[in-house]
């Protein structure tokens, strides 16, 4: 009888121990949230907007005409920017670039330090930022592309750079993220010589060899805007 009781006690202890050591499995699948902030192309709502400088990136790319795959890439800081929307139409717009911040981030030149690229661009050879510390784009016309709800416009306006003003035209796409922020992206190309930036251009200099710098400069931007 004593042996039977001991066996029951031992088996019972093993059963309780196994239940205590078995962890509960909690399925959090239904509670998981995605961190992807999906962008939805949309027209910005009516109102006045300001661009947030700290949440805006302006990137430029330059190349050398006679060297395959050569490129210099860098950034320009935003000083300020704004636009207004009324009845689904963009009525005004202005972007001011801080040319004193122009810098290089990537170069195919293996000899020149990247910091020197920015200094050279700031010099009188290129943008002469001491004399011309800002560049300004003033919107003159914004045309909707692809229907009233597409969120894509063709911007036309005057770009003033180094004291010279020329008209530029480029597409701009508006979207909204899940946080409700209004985003705008655009890309355009300019012929720098039209703004009196002649350094390394075959239009003005001969016998440059591999130092020929392409006249075309690509500029693209991603900006975040908020209602004033």
UniProtKB/TrEMBL annotation:
<dbReference type="Pfam" id="PF04264">
    <property type="entry name" value="YceI"/>
</dbReference>
<dbReference type="InterPro" id="IPR036761">
    <property type="entry name" value="TTHA0802/YceI-like_sf"/>
</dbReference>
<feature type="domain" description="Lipid/polyisoprenoid-binding YceI-like">
    <location>
        <begin position="48"/>
        <end position="226"/>
    </location>
</feature>
<dbReference type="InterPro" id="IPR007372">
    <property type="entry name" value="Lipid/polyisoprenoid-bd_YceI"/>
</dbReference>
<protein>
    <recommendedName>
        <fullName>Lipid/polyisoprenoid-binding YceI-like domain-containing protein</fullName>
    </recommendedName>
</protein>
